[in-house]
Write a structure and sequence with these properties.
about 300 residues; globular; binds adenosine monophosphate; binds manganese (II) ion
């Protein structure tokens, strides 16, 4: 996921921090309304508790935060109250795992009623089976000589029902099988590599229906990360638009500048709102810290104006 060396990452973080501080001191904070609408806590595969994610975002100068754990709403209340205590805006979020033409894609949901029955039941249906899948992943890893992966990954999963490939990744780094998470996902846990096991995720239509039923809006997470040809991406975006999809993530911790330009163009062409999110999973693991991303390119309509 990371696009540059840790040293360059640290310099970039310092520059963003200085830039936002200068603009704030000049009373121009409205010019850089700092939204981070994509991050994770220990309720899925993040390293910090929901309240600590919110406190860190506030300390980094975020104005509006959405916690968007994978397939779970468990962290929203704690994050919301920590955000309120820090005087920072907060909006409900979730990152839903879906399958589209055999590819795993992530759809973000925002500003929904977190007690809505259909949304909660839908998320429960895709969480079910994660533990079985993790056991199968462990057996597959055993076949290539990696023992104890189920227990090893579970040690990292504060919420066992959300055991994910990220927890297996941390175990594989801990045991020296790979030097970092990026190398893990080059050689393991992805289709065609040891440790990858298919799972039944939601459909694109389901994910949109659940969030819309609960009164929310959706965005396609990190569209630059999917291995789709240009024609397939267009087919996906057209289908998403037909189903009522409102937004795409344009500025993302997983995007290069080229992705930002490309998806900015798609947002204009298809009339999508644009979103911005770090996809922060934890200190030392994510290249972009909370709120420390470039601003949306000019001329795009920010999704947060529609909340
Ligand atoms: P799962 O929901 O179990 O399929 O796990 C997906 C999670 O694995 C993602 O949300 C990321 O946290 C992590 N992940 C997937 N691909 C990568 C990658 N290339 N680099 C780092 N983390 C990744
Ligand atoms: Mn994740
Ligand atoms: Mn994702
Ligand atoms: Mn994410």
């Amino acid at each position: 996921m990371d696009k540059a060396s840790p040293a360059r990452g640290a310099i970039r973080r310092l520059c963003y921090h200085a830039w936002f501080t200068i603009l704030r001191c000049l009373g121009l904070s409205s010019a850089v309304f700092n939204c981070d609408l994509h991050c994770h806590s220990t309720c899925s595969d993040g390293l910090l508790a929901p309240a600590d994610v919110a406190a860190r975002a506030a300390a980094n100068g975020v104005d509006l935060l959405a916690l968007s754990d994978h397939d779970s709403l468990d962290g929203l209340l704690a994050a919301r109250s920590a955000a309120a205590a820090a005087g920072m805006g907060f909006v409900n979020g979730v990152e839903i795992s879906i399958e589209w033409q055999a590819l795993q894609i992530h759809i973000l949901g925002y500003a929904f009623d977190s007690s809505h029955q259909a949304l909660n039941a839908g998320l429960e249906s895709i969480r079910a089976g994660r533990v079985d899948r993790a056991q199968q992943m462990s057996s597959e890893l055993e076949k290539v000589g990696i023992a104890g992966a189920f227990d090893g990954a579970m040690r990292y999963a504060a919420n066992p029902s959300l055991i994910s490939r990220a927890h297996f990744g941390r175990f594989l780094v801990e045991t020296g099988v790979a030097k970092d998470l990026r190398s893990v996902f080059e050689s393991y846990l992805v289709p065609g590599r040891p440790g990858y096991v298919d799972h039944r995720w939601a459909t694109l239509a389901d994910s949109l229906a659940w969030v819309h039923a609960a009164g929310g809006l959706v965005a396609v997470a990190h569209p630059g990360r999917y291995k789709l040809t240009r024609a397939e991406m267009r087919r996906f975006l057209a289908e998403y638009k037909d189903l009522g999809g409102e937004a795409i993530e344009v500025v993302s911790g997983s995007h290069t500048q080229e992705h930002v330009d490309t998806f900015g163009r798609y947002a204009r062409e298809y009339g999508f709102l644009a979103s911005r999110g770090s996809d922060f999973h934890g200190p030392g693991e994510s290249y972009f810290d909370l709120g420390q991303l470039a601003a949306l390119p000019d001329g795009l309509k920010p999704i947060w104006k529609a909340f």
